Amino acid sequence: MPKHSLVARNYWLVKSEPDVYSFDDLLREQKTAWTGVRNYQARNNLLAMEIGDAVLCYHSNLDRAVVGMAEVARSAYPDPTTLPEEEKGNWVCVDIRAVQKVTPISLATIKAEPRLADIALIKQSRLSVLPLTPEEYTLLCALGGVKKAR
DNA sequence: GCCAACGTTGGC
DNA sequence: GCCAACGTTGGC
Predict the structure, then answer these.
(1) Which runs of E-coded beta strand occur in A30-149?
(2) Given strand A31-34, what is the order of strands in its sheet?
(3) pLDDT tens-place string over residues A5-57
């Protein structure tokens, strides 16, 4: 297996508040630095991301839905938005690149799906960067109208 | 706007 | 090291 395979090895979900940074913003920019994560568990998930990993984008608050697909374009590096008083957290960011929109998958739909009962999105509702199992990822892609999961 | 969940901080 | 107080996130 080459170091940078085109096949994603890990699957993730990242949250944003759509009025702060939406998937449409990412589509417009194509690529962005996913900065501002200030939670240790979320940071550790960022540290585990590899180039090419698949990322689903979720909108919290008003939307409460998975709205798009992205991929990791650069693995973890120091978050340039870290304030001096935050430095002891060794906060990091990754770069993600937009792939495509999906048919929005609402939180209600996710909660109603028995095969997603253990998804971290529900189990740890406050975690903003979380892993998905291959099964969860594939199912979410199907629910989002994406025929072929990468 | 409220509240539950939960992470962090600081006193002891 | 414990725990109360407090702050933040995110669903409803």
Answers:
(1) 31-34, 54-59, 65-78, 92-106, 129-132
(2) A31-34, A92-106, A65-78, A54-59, A11-16, A129-132
(3) 556 689 999 999 999 999 999 999 999 999 999 999 999 999 999 999 999 99
- Protein A102 CA to nucleic acid B9 C1', in Å? 41
Quick check: A74 and A30 in contact, CB under 8 A? no
pLDDT at A3: 55
Report the alpha-carbon distance of residue A25 to residue A46 in Å, rounded.
21
Phi-psi region of A107 (alpha: psi -120 to 50; beta: other; left: phi over 0): alpha
Burial of A138 (C-beta count, 10 Å sphere; 0-12/13-18/19+):
middle
Distance A34 CA to B10 C1' (A): 31
Nucleic chain B contacts, Cβ below 7 Å:
A 39-41, 124-127
Q: Strand C: which residues 72-131 of A lie within 7 A (CB)? A: 107-108, 111, 125-128
Report the protein residue whose CA lies nearest the C1' of nucleotide B7.
Answer: A39
CB atoms within 10 A of CB A108: 10
pLDDT tens track for A73-92: 999 999 999 988 888 889 99
